[in-house]
Structures are given as structure tokens and as C-alpha cells.
């Protein structure tokens, strides 16, 4: 007889494992199906984010930022360190250790919460039965009162640039090189491409990013995107927009990339090529046809605002449903679904979803861009403050960027906050919290911020929206 669970989660990434933990906390008998096999050829939880995405990339970004500072910026602070070298294998080993500790931590959380980890590939059958196919090919079936699909996403492949060894790689492969390539081409100048390009550029690699779109970071407020492009190009990243990649060929241990732009066709040889053109939902074979769960033309599952599919008691969360592919978005959906299964009234505020690019300077935003607000005909005002006027930023020697707040004139609410600069990912939380609680720009302006801190830039931007910033000249209002 098949095991019976209150909740079975298919997928153990940030959406799935969080959903499983919250369900178990609420007293529901819970299992999580996960098939991931890590570098050590062992089963692991955490999905793409913890194993080959968010966490390992941040570990390398942190290491390489410190290395670059030691090489180029410490002297300005009065610190002489002599010749600095980088031990790439040790850097990769540290990254792997962090991944192992965190994924192992999730396994311990499963154990402490009484969650059954069903190792293998999960497939939803009819009547909320879930088939688990283990690594050895053996199959088992469990019954579920509720099923949560959280199978995440995978890198989009390009037929013109097939992956080949460690020369032509996707985002995961670019996290495992153990020597510094002389040159790297990155296809895609989005979040993933910029972060990976930054990692290797800091270690001395010549990095060229080829982007098909004619606008740099089109999802970002244009003022912030312009500032970001200037900063990245000043650092040495070569960003080519309106560029179509035609193909790639590996020859004698290098890769020849063919691309086309307004000036015609070009060929350039690189040591490595990273394909980072985005991700697609992983929904292949997740649901048997008899399960009758509806999907759209991109493979995403149709869900309502509470992540309910067309099949009662079957939910889908994270990268396999509408909305941005963000780990924290999937996690919050997982919490919401678990709580609703347990009978609680829970929801996700999709209008207040933070976004971050972990380059240096960091880029972070929440809410509407100025372009969106303008197109919607909203009466708005902008307040901004440059980090160049921040005492703490000057003390850190890190003054690139600004904070920008967009205010609804009719009610003083925050429509959007856009940051580029030091610790932008952390500073953004203040705006997210304010928007979640429907605080006003005046509320931020009246909140005492410690001095000297980077968060004062947010305070000054709020004051600037009302034409009363203290540490910069205010624009004259019409």
C-alpha cells in the first residue's frame, strides 16, 4: 500500500524546501521529492540556487571583490599589501564548502521537522499520486492530500552555441573553472551574465558581453541602468548591445564566436564562452498527461493568485509559474501555499518584490520604474541622492551610484525605489518594508537614521522628493 501524506512537494529548491518546512511546522505530514546529485555524486537539497546558482555565485563574487580591492584599492586607503595573488582552486573549494554546509543544513532541517526526503525524480499522476523514480531506476508511488509542484528552472540552451566541455559552458559550468582564462565571451548581459562576467573580469580576464536587446537592463529604471553601464564599462567589461550571436566553434582549445551587429558580421576567438541568455521553467515530464494540469505555451503551469492550478489540491510555485524567477519569490509562495493548505488566510504581495543584481556596484529595485509611472499617467515626484555625497560612502572609498525614490503625489506613497551603489541589496529592504506597510515618503523622511551610515542616502532621497534634502542642493520645483 502506498504511503499517504498530507503534502508532497515535488522539488527541493528554495520554493520547495521552504514549502515543505512550513507545512511540517503546521502539523502536516510532509514529504519532499528531490533528484539533485551534487559535484560529489551525492544526493543534495537546495536546487539550483544553493548548488549552482545564487549561493556559489555570491561566494565567488565576494572572493573576487576582495581580491580586486587588495590589488587596486587598498593603497588608496593607506594599506600596502605588496604583490597579491589569487589561488583559484582554493577559491572554488571554499565555494563548494559553503554550498555543502548550506545544503547539508537543509537536510538537517528536514530531519528536525520530520519531513521525509524522497530521493529521486517526482512525477504527478492522476488522483494526486506521485511516482518517484530513484537513481537506480526503481519506482515507488505515494498518495498525497495536496501536491505542490516546485521543480524550478534550467538554463536556456542555444542551438547555435552547444555546450562543449569546460570551454563552452552554461552558468553552472562558469562557477567551476580552476584557472583564470585570458578571455571570456558571455552571451547575455542580464543579471546572470553580468554577475559571472564580473567574477572573471576581477581576476584579470578580458570579458565581452554580447546582448541581443538594444537597451541595457530594460527591466531597470533607466537612470540606474545608465549609471550601471557606465560603471561596468569603466571597470573593463565590454558590453555590446543589439548583437546577434550566429554560432560558435571550438578549435584547438579555444572558441570562435560569430556574431552580427549593425556593422556586419564578426568573428572573435576567446578562451571560454558562457551562455547566459536566461532560464526556462523545468516542467518536462513533471506531470503525467492523466494528471490534467494545465500549462501555457512556455511550459508554465496556470495558477491563480494563490498558486492553485486547475486541479483541486494541486499547487505550483516558484520558477514554474508566472512572475520573476527569484528564489525569494518562490519561497514566499511556498509559505503561502503551505499556510492555505493548513486553513490559514495567506497571500503574497507581488507588487513589493525586491530585485537585486550582485555586481559591484550592486543594483537593486522594488516597485515601478519612472518610465512605468510616466506611461500610466500617475502624478509623481522623484527624490534622489548620490553616494558621492554620503560621508559613510566616502569613508569606505565607494561612492559610485545613487538612491532614487518615486513618490505618488496624490497620497505620498512610494511607487518605486531604485538603487545602485554600495550595499544596495541591503539598503533596499527599507523601501520594501515601507511599501509593504504602505508607509509614505514622509514617514521615511521623519525616521531617524544613524550617522554616518549608507542608509542615510535613503533618508536624503526621501527628503529630496519633497525638495528639502540637507546634504545636496535641491531642484527647484515648478
UniProtKB/TrEMBL annotation:
Organism of derivation: Granulosicoccus antarcticus IMCC3135
Domain called Pyridine nucleotide-disulphide oxidoreductase dimerisation: residue spans: 353-462
Pfam family, one: Pyr_redox_2
Keywords assigned by UniProt, alphabetized: Cytoplasm, Disulfide bond, FAD, Flavoprotein, NAD, Nucleotide-binding, Oxidoreductase, Redox-active center
Cofactor(s) needed: FAD
GO cellular component: cytoplasm
Localization, UniProt: Cytoplasm
GO molecular-function term, one example from the UniProt record: flavin adenine dinucleotide binding
Top-rank lineage group of the source organism: Bacteria
Name recorded for this polypeptide: Dihydrolipoyl dehydrogenase
Amino acid at each position: 500500500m502506498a504511503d499517504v501524506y498530507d503534502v508532497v512537494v515535488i522539488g527541493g529548491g528554495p520554493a520547495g524546501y521552504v514549502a515543505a518546512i512550513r507545512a511540517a511546522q503546521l502539523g502536516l505530514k510532509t514529504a519532499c521529492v528531490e533528484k539533485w546529485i551534487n559535484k560529489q555524486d551525492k544526493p543534495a537539497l537546495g536546487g539550483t540556487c544553493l548548488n549552482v546558482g545564487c549561493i556559489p555565485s555570491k561566494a565567488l563574487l565576494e572572493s573576487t571583490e576582495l581580491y580586486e580591492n587588495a590589488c587596486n584599492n587598498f593603497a588608496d586607503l593607506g594599506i600596502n599589501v605588496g604583490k597579491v595573488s589569487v589561488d583559484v582552486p582554493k577559491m572554488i573549494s571554499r565555494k563548494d564548502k559553503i554550498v555543502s554546509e548550506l545544503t547539508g543544513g537543509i537536510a538537517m532541517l528536514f530531519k528536525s521537522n520530520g519531513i521525509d526526503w524522497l530521493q529521486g525524480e517526482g512525477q504527478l499522476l492522476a488522483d494526486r499520486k506521485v511516482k518517484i523514480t530513484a537513481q537506480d531506476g526503481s519506482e515507488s508511488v505515494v498518495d498525497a492530500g495536496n501536491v505542490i509542484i516546485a521543480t524550478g528552472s534550467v538554463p536556456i540552451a542555444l542551438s547555435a552555441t552547444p555546450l562543449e566541455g569546460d570551454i563552452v559552458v552554461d552558468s553552472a559550468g562558469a562557477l567551476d573553472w580552476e584557472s583564470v582564462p585570458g578571455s571570456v565571451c558571455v552571451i547575455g548581459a542580464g543579471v546572470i551574465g553580468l554577475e559571472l562576467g564580473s567574477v572573471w573580469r576581477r581576476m584579470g580576464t578580458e570579458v565581452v558581453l554580447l546582448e541581443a536587446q538594444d537597451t541595457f537592463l530594460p527591466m531597470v529604471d533607466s537612470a540606474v541602468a545608465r549609471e550601471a553601464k557606465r560603471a561596468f564599462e569603466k571597470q573593463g567589461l565590454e558590453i555590446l548591445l543589439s548583437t546577434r550571436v550566429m554560432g560558435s566553434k571550438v578549435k584547438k582549445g579555444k572558441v570562435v564566436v560569430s556574431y552580427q551587429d549593425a556593422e556586419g558580421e564578426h568573428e572573435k576567438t576567446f578562451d571560454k564562452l558562457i551562455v547566459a541568455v536566461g532560464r526556462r521553467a523545468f516542467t518536462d515530464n513533471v506531470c503525467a498527461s492523466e494528471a490534467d494540469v494545465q500549462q501555457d505555451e512556455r511550459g508554465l503551469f496556470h495558477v491563480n493568485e494563490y498558486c492553485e492550478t486547475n486541479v483541486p489540491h494541486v499547487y505550483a510555485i516558484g520558477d514554474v509559474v508566472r512572475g520573476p524567477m527569484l528564489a525569494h519569490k518562490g519561497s514566499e509562495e511556498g509559505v503561502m501555499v503551505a499556510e492555505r493548505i493548513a486553513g490559514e488566510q495567506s497571500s503574497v504581495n507581488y507588487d513589493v518584490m525586491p530585485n537585486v543584481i550582485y555586481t559591484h556596484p550592486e543594483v537593486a529595485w522594488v516597485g515601478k520604474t519612472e518610465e512605468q509611472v510616466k506611461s500610466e499617467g500617475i502624478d509623481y515626484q522623484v527624490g534622489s541622492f548620490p553616494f558621492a555625497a554620503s560621508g559613510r560612502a566616502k569613508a569606505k572609498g565607494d561612492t559610485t551610484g545613487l538612491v532614487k525614490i518615486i513618490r505618488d503625489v496624490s497620497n505620498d506613497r512610494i511607487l518605486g525605489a531604485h538603487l545602485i551603489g554600495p550595499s544596495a541589496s541591503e539598503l533596499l529592504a527599507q523601501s520594501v518594508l515601507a511599501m509593504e506597510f504602505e508607509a509614505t515618503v514622509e514617514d521615511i523622511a521623519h525616521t531617524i537614521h544613524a550617522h554616518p551610515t549608507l542608509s542615510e542616502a535613503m533618508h536624503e532621497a526621501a527628503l529630496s522628493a519633497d525638495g528639502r534634502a540637507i546634504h545636496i542642493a535641491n531642484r527647484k520645483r515648478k
